[in-house]
Give the backbone structure.
Amino acid sequence: MADLDVYAAISEINALIEGSRKVPLSNMIMVDRNRLEDLLDRLHDSFGPDLEKAKTLLDKEQELRRRWDEHTEEAERNARETIDKATEQAHRLISDADAAAKDTQRKATDYANQTVAGAQAEAQNIIQMAQAQAAQLVEENEITQRAQARAAEINDDAMQACNRMQQDTVARLARLLEDADGGLATQLDAVRTMRQQLQMGGYADSDQGGYGPVEYGE
C-alpha cells in the first residue's frame, strides 16, 4: 500500500473518532469497533514488510543499547574497582613509605647522635693527650733549661781548669827550659829561641814544623 493509503487510513480513523458519540459525564466516546479494527488492519497492512524491518531494527537497536548499557555498567564497575584498588594500594604505599621514612630518620638520628658522641669523646681524648704532652714538654723544657745551665757551668769550669792547666804547663815548661838552659850547651840556641817565643806568647807547635818541648827530668 502506498503512503497515500496510510494517510487516508489515518484520516478515516480521525474522522471516526470525531464522529463518534461521547459518553455522558466523561471524556470517553463510543466507537464502532468493527470499523476501527478494519481501519487499523488497513493501516497495518500499509506498512507491510517495511514495518517489520523497522521493528526488527528497533529491536536490534534496543538490544544493542541494552548490551551497551550492560557493557558500560560493567566497565564503570571495573573502573571503580580498579580505582578503589589503586587508591587502597596508594594509601598502603604511602603508609609504608611514611613508616620507612620515619624509621630511616630515626636510624639517621641515632647514627648522628652516636657519631657526635664519638667525635666529642675523641676530641676530649685528643685535648687531654695534648694537655698531657704540653705539660710534659713544659717539664722537659724546664729540665732542658736546667741541663743547659748545668752544662754551661761545667763548660765554664772546664775552661777555667783548662786555662789553669795551660798556665801550669807553660810555667813548668818555662822552668824546664830554664833548667835546660844551664845544663845543655848543645841545645842552647834552641832553648833560647823557645824561651823568646814563650815570653812573646808565640810558642810554636812541633806538628807545624817549629820547636817542640824537650822532656827533661826534674
Remarks:
- The two ends are 186 Å apart (CA to CA).
- Residues 10 and 111 are 96 Å apart (CA to CA).
- The beta strands are 21-22, 29-30.
